[in-house]
Amino acid sequence: MKSAFSFHFPAASWRRGSACHANNTCVEVARLTADCLGTRDSKQGEHSPVLRFTPQQWRAFAEQVKAGAFDLA
Length: 73
Hints:
Layout: E1 5-6, E2 15-16, E3 27-33, E4 36-41, E5 50-53, H1 55-66
Antiparallel strand pairs: 1-5, 2-3, 3-4, 4-5
Domain DUF397: 12-66
InterPro entries: DUF397
Protein name: DUF397 domain-containing protein
């Protein structure tokens, strides 16, 4: 993986969480390759920068989100 920050993945199947609101303020996630997952801002759609993670990095990130490690309050 050359960079964790990329822009265009036309073949990716992007998914949104079930709590996504109608105002389109969601995070989208897709498996980009067998060893790479991506996340992007749904407001920007195809023009959104994509943060790329290995499956291990994604699991660690998701665990930290669930634990509240990134909560602002």
